[in-house]
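Board notes, transcribed. Complex of a protein with calcium ion.
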Amino acid sequence: MKQLSSLPSVKFLTSSIATLAISLISSQSATAATIALGFTKLTGVTGGSPANTAVLRAEIPAISFGKIASIVIKDISDSNAGSPGNVTGFDLDAIKLSYNAVDNAADVNTISALDLFDFSPTGTVLTPGSQRPPASSALFGTTGGNVNNAVATLGNFDANSTTDPTKIFGFFSLGNNGQVAFKLKSPITTNSPLYIYLGEVGDNGELATGEIIVSQPAPPVPEPSSLAVLSLAGIYLAVRYRRKNG
Ligand SMILES: [Ca+2]
Ligand SMILES: [Ca+2]
Ligand SMILES: [Ca+2]
């Protein structure tokens, strides 16, 4: 009876040693780091007709330890902010990377941009958030769980800020707690500050956070002998535990 009851403990011990080994390996060959972005709201609004897109700017510092590989934007809107249904959550009009800093929303469309975004589902990976009732089949500006850039036009701050179905255009909605990851066409280094601009349609209190994912050159792969030592240690501990408790 005693032996039977001790078996699950032994299994647990061996699996926790395996977990330890995996985390050691991944920390020795870390390939990514994340940096949170802090956004500042620019003066005024921009957009299509009606134009009511708020523009948010974050500074990406010069990065010497790796390359910027992707940018992740997450909805953190209060569940009462903005309109419900298919426009629930942060309404992204556009995203832009530029070396130019501007303070007025009206200037964001004219500054030069870095051509690094791929707005197809290959480079723009959406995790749709939830809709507040009445829910539609899809969030606005999305099709089949992906951003539909023919509707969202993420390269232009051009959204018509309305929920009128005959006029609504130029953005997509993230849904509550939705997120979108932009995988850059080629990872970049920055020797000087770079600016990221986001447009939020409606300027109606919906919020998002952002982070950049920096890829790092992988350090040398751990020596096979050190991995072997870890597995041997695991076997030894498991056997010892079984003897002691078996
Ligand atoms: Ca919204
Ligand atoms: Ca747009
Ligand atoms: Ca909005």
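Residues 1-29 have pLDDT under 50 and may be disordered. Residues 2-27+221-245 form one domain.
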